[in-house]
Amino acid sequence: MSQTAVDLAWRVLDTVPDPEIPVLSVRDLGIVRDVSCDQGGASVVLTPTYSGCPATEEIARSVREALEAAGFEPVTVTLRRAPAWTTDWISEAGRRKLLDYGIAPPGPEATDRSGAGLRPIRLLARSIDCPRCGSKRTERLSAFGSTACKALHRCLICLEPFEHFKPI
Amino acid sequence: MNSENRRQDTPRGRAGEPSPIAEPLDAGGRAASITIGDSPELRYVLRLADTCLIHAQRLTEWCGHAPVLEEDIALSNLALDLLGQARALLTHAGAIDGRGYDEDRLAFLREERDYLNLTLVEQPLRRGSAHSPGGDFADTQVRNLLLAVWLKLTWERLQSSSDAELAAVAGKAVKEARYHVEHAAGWVIRLGDGTQESSRRTQAAIERIWPFTAEMFADDEVDRAISARGIGPARSALLEPWLVEVQAVIDEAGVGMPGASRFISSGSRGMHSEHLGFVLAEMQSLQRTYPGGVW
Predict the structure, then answer these.
(1) Of A27, B44, B133, B259, most Cβ neighbours within 10 A?
(2) pLDDT, tens digit, for every residue of B237-278?
(3) Residue B53 contacts residue B120 (beta carbons within 8 Å)
(4) Confidence check: pLDDT of B32 > 80
(5) B125 domain residue, yes or no
(6) Structural domain of residue B273, as residue ranges?
């Protein structure tokens, strides 16, 4: 019984969009860390993406409203900081949706950056494939874009600007 | 006087909506100040929180004024990360303090002497910003570099803090700080290794800012207590790795590193330069005038 409820809750979470990138559900984004159901209620644990992400409170509210609309009562949403969210948690489906939407998906997050020989300076980040024409000849304009999670890039072949969901 | 009576004398944040909290008022009908205790745990968290908060507040002065649009967006993003880090730390400070103060009350109702940020972050950034002639764009980028490396080193060490909440905040913040270091390093190199004029101004910025860096590595009783309890690193332990990283950027930028100065600023002990009062007056004016006002 409870397992069925948990499956239903996950399916509901599949329909809750990220407010900044609505093509992604909160489940695709990998911020839903735990779902449990008990006696008609649901408890969801979310991990915020960035410390200052203004969407965090909005997401928590949408999750609560969606589960309540699906009949769960009471619904509790808690935020858990550790372990910290990483773009490695974005699902494969989520990555495909990002690409279709025109945002280059993140590569794997480097797990160890403290090794010897690593240059502290990286003026030109490794190039990201253009999500429009597929060219590898692109350049980064800025590591900071329209939201905390995206960087600004430009394709040198099709000349279109595009965003990259930066690995973190 | 009960809280209802007080409310009638008080301008409201939003018409018709009661304040979520009955804020104590001062004689002028404005939100009264709160004070903070002496525990090293509280003071340590507030030092870090206030450094992030005031650094963020200063960086937002660039919003709409940066030399290019991409940089305007980048500086606002840096400020947003720092503000998020400050919010988490202030909430944690409120829990340590135990008197029920939330992040907003800690940010908006403390006076200058109870603010514990590094003196460096309260220095004016932008030429023509309120109350001060300030520096130029090189000042901003040099300051960002020196602070981002220091914060990154601090967050790296706090990931293994005996304080689980601090460790959790650090686990997120360290990833953000890496991008901040990379961004500022890119600019310092571009400016230092650019034209004669940009190089001259970068060097001048380094020399103006450098004296404020001694405070980042000066231990006092708070640092000794928290490092003995495994909560965080002693500030002195950050000096060597900080110098290595900063030197690498400064070398690549083709500018020079000044010698150590004997001046040690004292913002983290609550004794500030003449600039913090103006920052707080602007930052706190809304909450002071409309006590408990919410969005």
Answers:
(1) B44
(2) 999 999 999 999 999 999 999 988 889 999 999 999 999 999
(3) no
(4) yes
(5) yes
(6) 40-289
Q: Please name the residue of chain A whose CA is at the shortest distance from the CA of residue B241.
A: A114
Helix (H, G, I), strand (E, B), or coil: what is residue A46?
A: strand
Q: Which residues contact B190 (CB under 8 A, 6 or more apart)?
A: A123, B198
Does B32 contact A at CB distance below 8 Å? Answer: no
Q: Mean of the per-residue pLDDT values for chain B?
A: 89
Judge whether B207 lies within some domain.
Answer: yes
Whether the ω angle into residue A83 lies within 30 degrees of 0, i.e. cis, is: yes
pTM for this model (two decimals): 0.89
Would you state the torsion angle of the CA atoms of residues B118, B119, B123, B125, taken in this order, to the nearest 10 degrees? -20
How many whole angstroms from its chain centre is CA A136? 23
Alpha helix locations (H) across chain B?
3-8, 40-59, 69-97, 103-108, 119-122, 137-158, 164-192, 196-209, 221-228, 239-253, 276-289
Chain A residues near residue B182 by CB distance under 8 angstroms: 120-122, 143
CA of B179: which chain A residue's CA is closest? A143
Tokens for B143?
């300051």
Same domain, A61 and A96: no
Domain that holds residue A144: 90-108+125-165
- What's the number of domains chain B is made of? 1
Flag if A121 and B185 touch (Cβ within 8 Å).
yes
Asked if residues A104 and A131 have their Cβ atoms less than 8 Å apart, the reply is yes
Contacts of B190 in chain A (CB under 8 A): 123
Residue A84 and residue B168: Cβ atoms within 8 Å? Answer: yes
CB-nearest to A81 from B156, B169, B179 is B169
Structure tokens at B253: 């930028």
Helix, strand, or coil here: A61?
helix
Which H or E run contains A154?
Answer: strand A150-155
Bridge pairing between strands A161-165 and A103-104: parallel
CATH at residue B45: 1.20.1260.10
Amino acid A68 reads E
Q: Please state, in angstroms and rounded to a whole number, the distance separating the CA atoms of residues B79 and B84.
A: 9
Report yes or no: B257 and B246 within 8 Å, Cβ to Cβ: yes
Number of domains in chain A: 2
Pick the range with the lowest mean pLDDT from B16-20, B156-160, B251-255, B264-268.
Answer: B16-20
Phi and psi torsions of B127, nearest 5°: -60, 130
